[in-house]
Amino acid sequence: MANERWLGVHFPRLKLEVCIRRLTGDAEVPVALVEDGKVLALNDAALAAGILPGSSQATAVGICAGIVCCRRDASAEDARLGLLAELAWRFTSHVSLAEPDGLLLEVGRSLRLFGGLAALCEEVEALYRELGHELRLATADTPLAASVLARAGTSSLQAVPLACTHLDLDAIERFANMGVMRLGQVLALPAAELGQRFDPELLAYLDRLVGRVPDPQDLLVPTETFASVVHLVSSVQDGNALLFPVRRLAGELASWLASRRLGASEIVWTFTALHGEEASLAVRFARPRSDAGALFDHTRLSFEGFRPPSEVMSISLRAESLRLLKAVTRPLLPEAPGAGIHADSAALELVDRLAARLGEDALHGIRIVDDHRPERAWSIRHVRQMHGKGGRPRQGTLPVRPIWLMPTPEPVRRDDFTLLGECERIETGWWDGAVTRDYFVATTRDGRQCWLFREERGDEKERWFLHGYFA
């Protein structure tokens, strides 16, 4: 389409970054990515130690005894690229993979929303750098050109080395033998002669590259739930060391939630030991959360009373209880401190912290029940069940009630009390235990204010009971 604008995102060190993600510390230790005994990639600390890509693993260890060698995990790389693609949904719904280490985003429809191409690119770069990825960006009118430019780190197709294209090694070698090293030289050659010397796929590739023929992309279909796992380089016995990968996973979940405007009401961590033992930790929230700080902080609090298995080798995070975040409507005028949405947020934050520290079963509250009998007008509920149900009664709509209500009314003598004011009759419960009571506010002989009632039962003599004390 004429208004299409493609953004190519290339992760030049994706394989190494997937390896570094498996570490349990933030220290800049030398790291080497190895496959079949050969070093494929190195971080800056390993390069500074004098190790070169292509060296044998034995040579790398001989040069730097403290180097961490990680075996390449192709499946983990694919999963990581898939997650990075899903995070791009916050910028556009047209996202496709440029395997093995890139993405393609059609951003023409999003430029106005983000304030232009430069602003959008800044947000894309900030997102992926925060997750620990180095990247290069490039834009073009065709997806293939955007991918090639991002891989080459240039803005001109003429300057792209053939090694940065998607041509097979045989074609690149044949061009090199002809003295052709850059894409601009290939595009300058007559198409008829190229068709005679090379396979038809080469001409089709060049046509898609420059936009002479359409190049439809397979768009990403996002997953409905979040699941991510980190396989550690070595087993971990120290629980505090597990918090490093836990923080990384919490950050990934926060970015995933932000791309969909979702919040998590519950997340589940699973720690798997070297010998196969598993232990799960569920972290619940009083309201859906999507910020990395809250996800990690409440996990850390819950972790204090949790015993993971010894020699943990992998950590997985799953979030299935998801809800769409509602836009917050703020008042026109400033609110008083401790009122409105700030008070509600503070209360829910306190609930989450107490539940994380003390455990879910230790946190309860009192809920009003629609029953006139005082002993049945309230019930104990877990705070998770209370949130969002019912409203608060308006002040003044109910008669005054004592703070301390006795579990069972106690029989008393009327002469020991002085009645204050008029009585309040409560007559209800015919369906499951009828009561007819006249309640009075009274004082005892020592001046304490209490709540009495007179009970009538047919022809029996009236009886008086003490039901509670006021403050």
If you had to describe this structure to a student in words, what would you say it looks like?
The chain has helices at residues 14-20, 44-48, 57-63, 74-87, 111-114, 117-130, 143-152, 169-177, 183-188, 191-197, 200-210, 243-260, 292-303, 340-358, 383-386, and strands spanning 6-10, 31-35, 38-42, 68-71, 95-98, 102-106, 136-140, 226-236, 262-273, 278-289, 312-324, 364-368, 378-382, 404-412, 417-428, 435-444, 449-455, 463-469. By secondary structure, the protein is of the alpha+beta class. Helix 13 (292-303) runs parallel beside helix 14. The longest helix is centred in the last third of the chain and has 19 residues, at 340-358.
Topology:
Elements: E1 6-10, H1 14-20, E2 31-35, E3 38-42, H2 44-48, H3 57-63, E4 68-71, H4 74-87, E5 95-98, E6 102-106, H5 111-114, H6 117-130, E7 136-140, H7 143-152, H8 169-177, H9 183-188, H10 191-197, H11 200-210, E8 226-236, H12 243-260, E9 262-273, E10 278-289, H13 292-303, E11 312-324, H14 340-358, E12 364-368, E13 378-382, H15 383-386, E14 404-412, E15 417-428, E16 435-444, E17 449-455, E18 463-469
Parallel strand pairs: 2-4
Antiparallel strand pairs: 1-6, 1-7, 2-3, 5-6, 8-11, 9-10, 9-11, 12-13, 14-18, 15-16, 16-17, 17-18
Helix pairs in contact: 12-13, 13-14
